[in-house]
Write a structure and sequence with these properties.
Length: 291
């Protein structure tokens, strides 16, 4: 009666008698080499090395090896216990994916508590929000950093201000994220908006205690008649306009840095250039118009 194997590196003490897949033509697993036939065709050979048989995969096609070692066509269905073991072995892979590689896998419809704990994520409720009808009526802002490498000018952060009406974006680099530094950056931005003849009415940002949510910054907003709209704690997606704009600008800056092979200390110049170009290129959210 022929023998079957269980692992790609075979320990002969684990072999058992079966007819599903045989090693031949030898009668004992202690023989020096063996051949594994499927449908009367040898697809793999093994060489004994101490207590193990090492398979020579260089002479076999990958698909044949996968069929021989994993799928085992014609094998009966696994038990529920065996199927759950395979689910754990494959790092709690989805049932559909396991069925595609393990023939005979059985989905018993039960709920895996470990999967629920490990793969649980917060549901983000999205609904359309109407844009403002007046330029700079609402400004979105966010801070990015710290960068591992300081810029040539000593900056380690940058802060952005996005106009909700047209997505016009202004950016400034900062040496730190102290409240005084961020407040000075906002006053610089507000002076530019005032020079364009517009007034900021609402200011939306993350609920950061060190940058925005402080007495000094709140007092400046109150004097100017600007409503402060901090997002709830741990809900960065509520400030999605600024978050996505940071992603767009950093992707462009990263592409320019990689293409030019510029040193990392020039990241500030790259991020400023990406913002400059973004304001002058067509925007999909504006139907092809420029911010």
């Amino acid at each position: 009666m022929p023998y079957t194997y269980q692992l790609s590196i075979i320990r002969y003490s684990q072999w058992e008698i079966s007819t599903s897949m045989a090693i031949a033509p030898h009668s004992k697993p202690e023989d020096v080499s063996s051949a594994i036939p499927t449908n009367q065709k040898v697809i793999m050979t093994g060489q004994k090395n101490g207590m193990l048989y090492e398979l020579d995969t260089s002479r076999s096609a990958p698909d044949s090896i996968l069929t021989a070692l994993v799928t085992l066509k014609g094998k009966k269905k696994l038990s529920i216990a065996e199927s759950r073991i395979w689910h754990k072995r494959l790092s709690h892979l989805g049932d559909a994916a396991i069925k595609s590689i393990i023939n005979g896998y059985v989905d018993d419809g039960s709920t895996c508590e470990v999967c629920m704990q490990a793969k649980l994520r917060r549901e983000i409720i999205r609904f359309p929000v109407q844009r403002t009808s007046i330029p700079f009526e609402l400004v979105h802002s966010d801070l990015c950093g710290p960068f591992a490498t300081r810029s040539a000018g000593g900056a380690q952060y940058f802060i952005i201000y996005v106009n909700d009406y047209s997505r016009h974006t202004e950016i400034t680099v900062l040496p730190d994220k102290q409240a005084e530094t961020c407040t000075a950056a906002f006053q610089w931005f507000q002076a530019k908006v005032d020079g364009w003849g517009y007034d900021i009415r609402r200011f939306r940002s993350d609920n950061r205690s060190s940058e925005y949510n402080n007495k000094n910054f709140r007092s400046i907003l109150a004097v100017q008649g600007i409503a402060f709209e901090p997002c709830p704690p741990h809900t960065q997606h509520k400030n999605g306009i600024a978050e996505r704009m940071i992603g767009v600008l950093t992707q462009k800056a990263r592409a320019m840095m990689l293409d030019s092979q510029a040193p990392m200390q020039f990241w500030a110049e790259a991020i400023n250039t990406s913002c400059y170009l973004h304001r002058r290129t067509p925007n999909q959210s504006l139907d092809g118009k420029r911010p």
